[in-house]
Amino acid sequence: MSFFGPRDVARAAVRGRWSGLEIRRLTPPERLGTPESAAFEELVGVLNGIVYQLWGDDDFVETAEEALAGLREQDYLEKIVLVAVEEGAIVGRVEADFPLDQDAETVSLLVDVVPALRSRGIGSALLAAGEELAAEGGRTVVSAYTEHPVRSLPEEGAWVHAPAGSAGLPAEDPGVRFALRHGYRLGQIERSSELVLPLPPVRAVALASTAATADGYRVVSWFGAAPDDLLDSFAALKERMVVDVPHSGIALDREAWTGDRVRAQERELAARGEPLLVTAAQCEASGDLAAYTEIAVPADGEKAEQYDTLVAADHRGHRLGTLVKLHNIHELARCAPHITRLLTWNADENAPMIAINRAFGFRPHALTGTWQKRLG
User: Fold this and answer.
1) pLDDT tens digits, 92-102
2) 226, 262 in Cβ contact below 8 A?
3) In sequence order, what E strands does the chain have?
4) Which of 168, 191, 214 is the last residue of a domain?
5) For residues 322, 308, 49 and 93, what is the CA-based torsion angle, rounded to 10 degrees?
6) Which of 27, 19, 12, 134 is nearest to 71 (CA)?
7) Is residue 355 in some structural domain?
């Protein structure tokens, strides 16, 4: 399904306002290493340079193969990439991610500009082109994001706060100023946290003691693909992720999850070389899955990323968050002993999950701002 044809988006208008700059739609190539893939591979290199300058390491650097795999599965999330080209070189991009669920009203825009070329209108041009895509696609809520490594946060100064939570983003940060200048409102802050593995023995024993109080539940784990007999129950639990997580300050679309959608996500992550390691808690009385946590596990490197962690609302208060996280970390040590760092993200107002992370020994890594704007 696609809202858009192959034509360019308001090219003449963009060129008229930002002289010498072109905004072009980038079509993902069928194969890499071909003349048709040159622009895509150039974009991957540009984005990796931006990432490295922001974070100071290669934690979020992607290979062209990984980036291409992330664009191929578009049955549930359509991803449209526009690039800014100046003097024949790619200098930025906006990726518009359109959830394709029925009644979806949001779109997410990822805007990046080469650092040395910022403050010249390139980001504004890309944002305008992304918002035009959103309007053409009938979306009324646009989300954008700013990322703030802990090492970059000032010790004092003015802060911008979301409606909920205690964290704030520095008001003088260029990304913050850019979002505010273009009419976006800070809706939520996510805390990124890092855990060094393996767990110290004393901490592991204390966590195991807490997890042992989860009576009436058993754990089940899988790597890469959910068991067929748990597929529908797992899909039903993933559908609750948007419903049960804190999101009072931002608009989120409901997501319909089926077994087919779970399999599509598994295919995408396997193609990226980061299959999911999942541990779920199963209610012994009903057989339903009550909680789960996921880790995307790369074949090499030392860093892995924790994706969803959810305890269904009617099963909370039984230490299931600790149970599934601890068991998944044990499974991670067994199947991927090369992983020595784990990153996770939580809404700033999600105090229960943040408390669990602190008990594991997670330490602050970064803040991510979710900014939203209503069109029309």
Assistant:
1) 999 999 999 99
2) yes
3) 21-26, 77-86, 89-99, 106-113, 141-149, 159-161, 168-170, 185-196, 217-223, 276-283, 289-296, 303-311, 341-347, 363-374
4) 191
5) -160
6) 27
7) no
Task: State whether 145 and 78 are in the same domain.
Answer: yes
For residue range 191-229, what is the model confidence (pLDDT) as tens digits? 999 999 999 999 999 999 999 999 999 999 999 999 999
What is the tens place of the pLDDT at every residue in 27-72? Answer: 999 999 999 999 999 999 999 999 999 999 999 999 999 999 999 9
Pair 69, 167 in one domain: yes
* Structural domain ending residue among the three candidates 128, 161, 191: 191
Q: Which of these ranges, 18-22, 128-132, 263-267, has the smallest mean pLDDT?
A: 18-22
Give the pLDDT confidence score for residue 18 in this predicted structure.
52
Question: pTM higher than 0.90, yes or no?
Answer: yes
> What crossing angle do the helices spanning 38-55 and 64-72 adopt, rounded to 10°?
110
Residue 358 within any structural domain of the chain: no
Number of residues assigned to the chain: 376
Q: Which domain holds residue 257?
A: 198-339
Q: Is-contact 348 188, C-beta < 8 A? A: yes
Helix (H), strand (E) counts: the chain: 11, 14
DSSP 115: G
What CATH number should be reported for the domain holding residue 89?
Answer: 3.40.630.30
